[in-house]
Every structure is written in structure tokens, then in C-alpha cells.
Amino acid sequence: MRKLLNTLYVTTPDTYLSLDGETVSVQKEGITLLRVPLHNLESIVTFGYTGASPALMGTCSKRGIGLAFFTMHGKFLASIVGETQGNVVLRRTQYRVADDDAKALNIARNILIGKLHNERWVLERATRDHPGRLDSDRIKRASGFIANSIQALLEANTHGSLVGIEGEAAKQYFSVFDELILNNKDVFFFRERSRRPPLDNVNALLSFAYVLLTQEMASALSAVGLDPFVGFLHKDRPGRRSLALDLIEEFRAPFADRFVLTLINTRQLHARDFEQQENGAVYIKDDARKTVLTAWQERKREQIEHPFLKEKIEWGLALHAQALLLARFMRGDLEAYPPFLWK
Predict the structure, then answer these.
(1) Whether the Cβ atoms of residue 172 and residue 255 lie closer than 8 Å to each other
(2) Residues 18, 25: contact at Cβ < 8 Å?
(3) Regarding the domain delimited by 88-330, which CATH topology (the fold level of the hierarchy) does it fall under?
(4) Is 203 exposed, middle or buried (CB count within 10 Å of its CB: 0-12, 13-18, 19+)?
(5) Does domain 6-79 have CATH number 1.10.10.10?
């Protein structure tokens, strides 16, 4: 298991990253804003278009430090991929399984069982933690629908049927998501999931959290020697990190969604923290993004008990644990891939 180190998020516009000895130097207009020792970093995530020096990219590649580039609005641009970790046998096994419809289906089913289980328990815990403040009957009906959907997943025998069942369950989950927003309802409201672009403040936060989650998972998969671009649920598409998107399904509700709800319900963000563009797209402003990233790092350090390993670990390590469990399954050490079942 890799140690959970820091991630450096660079959100200041027009900055350039370079190598300065054993440190990464963040510069703007020739002025050094920050230096961070490389041995303290697990990954670097930068938002903007200015870029990084070839020397820094080469060093990050050599040392296994993730380096990913996003637009200021959180759209993935590129990442640095260095020498492949793990061994070629593991990846060849991954590719063969991905090309075997039956084997890929079994993994995809377990991933979606984990996703729906976790969505259900987000709803169940909300009714337990906030009695009297929610429409409990409405939420219970959605939870019951999701529970039935889990049973349907067990009987599904095609990729299309799996995706269809998950889609209907997601509609039920998001149909009551607005109930979980307890404060500032005039600023933070949820009608439906909107992406590319997000059309309200809540969707802007959810999309940003999912971007962060995908980057974390891609790094975890690379660390254990798996290819983040070849998945079992999400089909291959140029530039899409399909396996990372597969495994974050289990973490969307218990980690990312609850993280966003905490930011809203504890009043850490306000109307002034968002901007709406002419096309209706809503994005998080730069200063607010820093608030979100600081809270994200803090949430990653909170401890939970891993449901399969039965060990106390930090939330941030749970993603690495799932990547490791998938690798162990690929090697034949486990009979099936055990999804992350939060409760």
C-alpha cells in the first residue's frame, strides 16, 4: 500500500511549473510563488494552460509523481505517463478480461452493485441523521427502488441491461438529492444532473468533485500497474480513462456527493463563489476552488474502516485499496472483485 502523500493543486491563473533542484517551483511572470519538495508529493494537478517544464515532467515521470493538466473549469487536458509500474503480465490479463464480455460483465456488475449500495446508504443515513428536516417517505421510496435495482443487477446478463438498471436507479437517487441540501436553498438547489456544462451551483460542485476523484483513481490504478484507460463498464474511447471512471462509481455517492453536501450545509460556499457564463454554464471561481481543494484534502485524511479489508485507513487510501484489490483479482488471488460497500 502506498503512503498517502500530498497532492499539489495549482489554481492560480497563468502560472508555470518548473524543476528547481529537488523542488517544484510555481512561477508567475518570473516571480516564484511557491516551492514544494518533490519527495513530499504524490501528484500535481494544475488548472490552466501555461504548462510545465520538460525537466519537471521528466522527473515526475521517473519518480512516479502524477502530473495532470486541466482547464480552469476542470476539463481534463492531459497527464504525464512515465515508465509503466507493475508488470506486463498484469496488464495483458487486464486487456484479455476487458475483451471477454462475460468476464468484463462480472466486474462491471460488482462495481455497479457497490455504486447502488452506496447511493442507498447515503439516503438512509440522511434520514437517520436529519429526522424531521427531510421528506423521509420520499427518500425511503427512492432507497427502496435502488434496493430492488441491486437485485436486478444480480440477474442482468448483458452490458446494456446493467447500464439500463443503473441509469434508472441514478434517476431515483438524484430525484431526492435536493432533499439532502439543508441550507441556502435559494443559492444551492438541485433539479437534475447536468454536465458539459453544469447549469447550477450544485452541479458545478459535483462535476469538480468527480474530476478530482477521477484523477485520484487514475493515479491509484497506475501505481498498482493497471491501465487506467482500459475499463470493464465504460467502453474504450480515445483519451478516456475508462477504468478510473469504472472504479469511481463506487465512490461518487459516499465520498464526492457527501463532500459537496458538507460544503453546502456547513455554509463554506456562497453565491459569490460562482460565475454563470452566457451559455448558462456555471463554474466555481478561483478563490472558491481553493476552498474546495483545501476541504478535499482534509476529507481525504479522515479515517474509515475499509469494508473488505476490515482495517482503519484514510479515505484517500480507500481508492488505492480498491485499485490493489482489482489487481489482486486480476492475478488470481481473489475469486471476484470486491466492491467498496460503504455503510
Answers:
(1) no
(2) yes
(3) Four Helix Bundle (Hemerythrin (Met), subunit A) (1.20.120)
(4) buried
(5) no
pLDDT tens, per residue, the chain with 343 residues: 344 446 787 877 788 999 999 999 998 888 898 899 988 887 787 877 678 899 999 998 888 787 878 776 666 677 776 665 557 888 999 999 999 999 999 999 999 999 999 999 999 999 988 887 888 889 999 999 999 999 999 999 999 999 999 999 999 999 999 999 998 888 999 988 988 889 999 999 999 999 999 988 988 888 778 999 999 999 888 878 999 999 999 999 999 999 999 999 999 999 999 998 888 899 998 889 889 988 998 898 898 999 998 988 889 888 988 998 998 899 898 999 999 999 8
Please list the residues that pair with 45 across neighbouring strands. 9, 68
Residue spans of the domains in the chain: they are 6-79, 88-330
Q: Is 133 helix (H, G, I), strand (E, B) or coil?
A: coil
Query: Helices in the chain by DSSP H: which ranges?
Result: 54-63, 88-99, 101-129, 136-155, 159-175, 201-223, 242-251, 258-265, 286-300, 315-330
Single-letter residue type at 166: E
In this prediction the pTM is 0.82
